[in-house]
Design a protein that fits this description.
- This is CHAT domain-containing protein.
- The protein is α/β, with parallel strands linked by helices and 867 residues long.
- Helix 6 runs antiparallel to helix 7.
- Strand 8, helix 32 and strand 9 form a beta-alpha-beta unit.
Length: 867
């Protein structure tokens, strides 16, 4: 049976090896006006292509034509094969009853080998519909026949499908065994699309086993394979959304799901895939705190799943819909009943999401004061705290903590919170990328808040301090895993620098080039993806924060940690051998005031804004009342360390009247201040001075500093290129970088300092074996940070602290370039006299001219850490 010189039967396996080539050859077959049997095969190939990669309506027309031609050819097996393909397409189109009827006819018509293939495809459809037991039964019937006949391709498909069903039921070990066996078979074939699918499935298995970096790496590899074949990746998008959400990257997951939905709508693709993508989008929106979007997406998903007769999927979508409604502020007995019904149905399916639904029912019941109902539901949810993947165990411990709180057991709440956060700590340290470590902490926010709430009402200030520290700035507790010497990552960073430099030059010349900006964004995605593949290498060592050690190290100084409980700021004043608590103001008011102050400092950086100075100073007084409250008279005369929550990281603390003339430093946590305090400077640490391009003053302080230090290494002009700068910074004792700083709120790890060959980004700093002991960043916005996760901060300063830097001076606001020079020179004068960064900065402010611009410049800079 041929069309020209090509055997037509070869087209069917080719559609999953090289889909585009198979489509082209099938069209050539039909152009030759073939007999019914080869025409049936060609139409089936085109139908498969359109079903999986194109317009489902066109697919159904081809497949019905293929079925009719098979009947005319009087080939029962050919007709059975087409009926199975048609059945899959009908189910994906949402015509479930017609699809299952097509399978019934296919099973009846087929024999032997063909019947086994029909059973495999019906098993696939059962999986799509959420009928997992039926799927496993059809695979059980098909596999022995496929193996006996030596059909490696279909045997591998059946094993892959069975593994996927096992994953849906939470049987990860069984899934791993099947995936491994399937992969061995795929290696013997040329089925490139199936091989890509196998890599994608391994990514899902890695995720289910708790290995997020491996999951992201495998899904990215699968995407590259699909891209070479030119095939869309809807299922891959669904799976990546799940992994991104587990990594705390819900906004990114939502964007991916919405983009895939838009593409699917544009080409008229599978209704089943659209419903699954809507569910993924709803989950992502809920995780991102966007309740209205979550409600809208979940409601449409519920309707589509119901119309498609996919009860398993519909129930999962109902869970997200109820969660989103509760997040929007709804509470009612009806919602308790709905959540309980969803939990019961999910449990009957064997779904790992059942405890999540029970926890939801318990939460709503607690909010309504229905303690007996809450206990019943929470007890069910708490059963999962000892087994399963980390997020599921955290859910179980959250349920246990809520049970203990309802029962009035303070000890029970704290124990459940400790155990749950320990689980999340272990999971966090499997992640190598600081970005992922920061974002994933959001999963522990409720446990940390419960523990702080109980500590506030039933414990002393010391207990509240311990729990405030327990889940604050945890990313800084250990350095990120150093990126491997990955040639692709290194070349990507080099290419990114070049493109970013060209794009910036074009913007400065008033001729932005969209192509350069698109390439810059593409390279950012590639770098971000590769860094996320890094697996953690530092084991979790438990909570090592030691209050007595902190009090001992403070000497005659004070550490002020601002804890936020139920929206209010509480001042924990550490010093003189004890911890005291003082009430302060609402966090929301303090954040609003801080934003007003930041706007004022931006205006004061330019001459002619003197009239705004009293307003800014008055705002500083209000901030002091909101943030320090009654603690002010107890600050003593010694140095003060401020430990603010993430939401207040941009407060210019030196503006507050009680802190204005003090030796003042800022730290993301008390634990990170302790680590900085105990960090030893490198022996014979050299001084490095860097002057980047394009500064309004030309970095005028650098030549004077070079004269002051004498033996300092000076990098400027062509020497100030990123590779050379990094080489000199590694292990230095003191580094001064005069370079334009840019903060990226959308992607804080691409915040940068401008060097001669392009941006020096946070990802570059993370490649250092040891960052400089002290760093001074003399440009604007270098201290700006992004608050993510539970209470984590990402940006230049926080990237340096875990890498060996004990102290940083940087600015949290735009500053006047000319006014920076005298401040920097005075700062270094203090350092050469043996002062710490905080002492030198305090003294440097006092030497500045009394005009508004210089005052604002002094307030904008802060000392971070303890060096």
């Amino acid at each position: 049976m041929t069309a020209g010189s090509e055997p037509v039967l070869e087209l069917l396996p080719m559609v999953f090896a090289d889909p585009g080539e198979a489509r082209a050859r099938a069209e050539l077959v039909l152009a030759a006006a073939p007999a019914p049997l080869p025409a049936s095969i060609a139409h089936q190939v085109l139908g498969i292509w359109q079903r999986d990669f194109g317009d489902l309506r066109i697919a159904l027309r081809h497949l019905r034509r293929a079925r009719d031609l098979a009947a005319r050819a009087d080939s029962a097996d050919r007709e059975a094969d087409v009926l199975a393909t048609l059945g899959v397409a009908l189910v994906h189109a949402g015509r479930t009853r017609q699809g299952l009827a097509s399978f019934e006819r296919g099973v009846a018509r087929g024999t032997g080998h063909t019947r086994a293939r029909v059973l495999y495809r019906r098993a696939y459809v059962w999986w799509v519909l959420g009928h997992h037991r039926e799927a496993l039964e059809d695979v059980r019937r098909a596999l022995p026949v496929l193996r006996q006949l030596g059909d490696d391709i279909w045997t591998a498909r059946a094993l892959t499908l069975r593994a996927t069903v096992h994953l849906a039921l939470g049987a990860v070990e069984r899934a791993d065994a099947d995936f491994t066996a399937a992969e061995r078979l795929w290696d013997t074939t040329g089925q490139e699309h199936d091989k890509a699918d196998a890599v994608e499935s391994r990514g899902l298995a890695a995720f289910r086993s708790g290995d997020v970096p491996a999951a992201l790496r495998l899904l990215d590899e699968a995407e590259e394979r699909y891209a070479k074949l030119g095939t869309p990746t809807y299922m891959l998008s669904i799976r990546r959304c799940e992994v991104l959400m587990a990594a705390g990257l819900a906004p990114e997951a939502l964007a991916e799901a919405d983009a895939a939905i838009a593409l699917l709508d544009r080409i008229g693709g599978q209704s089943t895939r659209k419903a699954e993508l809507l569910l993924a989008a709803a989950r992502a929106a809920r995780s991102a705190g966007d309740a209205p979007t979550a409600i809208a997406r979940a409601a449409v998903a519920v309707r589509l799943f119901a119309a498609q007769r996919r009860l398993w999927w519909e129930t999962h979508a109902r869970l997200v819909l109820i969660e989103a409604r509760v997040a929007a502020g709804r509470r009612s007995g009806r919602l308790v009943a709905d959540a309980a019904a969803v939990a019961e149905r999910l449990a009957s399916f064997g779904s790992p999401a059942a405890p999540e639904a029970s926890l939801l029912a318990g939460r709503i019941a607690l909010a309504l004061g229905w303690t007996a109902d809450a206990e019943r539901h929470l007890a069910v949810a708490a059963r999962g705290r000892h087994a399963g993947p980390a997020p599921a165990r955290v859910t179980g411990w959250a349920a246990q903590a809520l049970r203990a709180r309802a029962a009035g057991s303070r000890r029970g709440v704290l124990e459940a919170c400790r155990r749950g956060l320990d689980v999340l700590d272990d999971h966090r340290m499997t992640l190598g990328a600081s970005e992922l470590r920061a974002h994933v902490t959001a999963q522990g926010a409720e446990l940390a808040a419960l523990a702080q709430e109980v500590s506030l009402t039933h414990g002393g200030p010391r207990r509240l301090l311990e729990w405030s520290e327990r889940w604050r700035a945890t990313v800084l507790s250990a350095p990120p895993t150093r990126p491997p010497a990955d040639p692709a990552l290194l070349s990507g960073l080099t290419a990114y620098r070049e493109i970013a430099a060209r794009a910036e030059e074009a913007r400065m010349e008033g001729r932005p080039v969209p192509a350069l900006e698109r390439e810059q964004r593409r390279l950012e995605r590639e770098i971000r993806s590769r860094t996320r593949h890094i697996r953690g290498s530092v084991p979790h060592e438990g909570n090592r924060f030691d209050v007595p050690r902190l009090l001992d190290r403070l000497g005659d100084g004070r550490l002020v940690e601002l804890a936020v409980v139920d929206g209010r700021v509480h001042v924990l004043l550490c010093g003189q051998g004890r911890v005291r608590r003082f009430a302060a103001g609402p966090l929301a008011e303090a954040v609003t005031e801080a934003e007003y102050v930041q706007a004022g400092l931006r205006r004061l950086a330019h001459p002619g804004a003197e009239a705004r100075l009293p307003l800014v100073e008055a705002a500083g007084e209000r901030l002091q009342e909101l943030l320090l409250g009654g603690a002010v008279p107890h600050l003593g005369a010694g140095p003060v360390v401020i430990v603010p929550p993430g939401a207040l990281h941009r407060v210019p603390w030196a503006l507050l009247p009680a802190l204005r003339d003090r030796v003042l430093s800022v730290s993301p946590s008390a634990g990170s201040w302790l680590r900085a305090r105990e960090t030893e400077p490198p022996r014979g640490g050299r001084t490095v001075l860097v002057r980047g391009p394009g500064l309004a003053t030309g970095g005028a302080e650098v030549p004077e500093l070079a004269d002051r230090y004498g033996t300092a290494t000076v990098l400027e002009g062509a020497d100030a290129q990123v590779p050379r700068v990094l080489g000199e910074l590694d292990g230095a004792g003191l580094a001064h970088l005069a370079a334009h700083g840019t903060f990226r709120a959308d992607s804080p790890l691409f915040s940068a300092l401008r060097m001669a060959d392009g941006p020096l980004i946070v990802h570059d700093f993370e490649r250092l074996d040891r960052s400089p002991y002290r760093i001074i960043l003399s440009s604007c916005d270098t201290a700006r940070l992004a608050s993510v996760g539970a209470d984590e901060l990402l940006g230049l300063v926080t990237a340096l602290l875990p890498l060996g830097t004990a102290g940083v001076v940087a600015s949290s606001a735009p500053v006047n370039d000319a006014a920076v020079i005298p401040l920097m020179l005075a700062l270094h004068k203090g350092l050469t006299a043996g002062l710490s960064l905080a002492e030198a900065l305090r003294d440097a402010r006092t030497t500045l001219p009394s005009d508004t611009v210089h005052q604002a410049t002094g307030w904008a800079f802060a000392a971070f850490g303890a060096a």
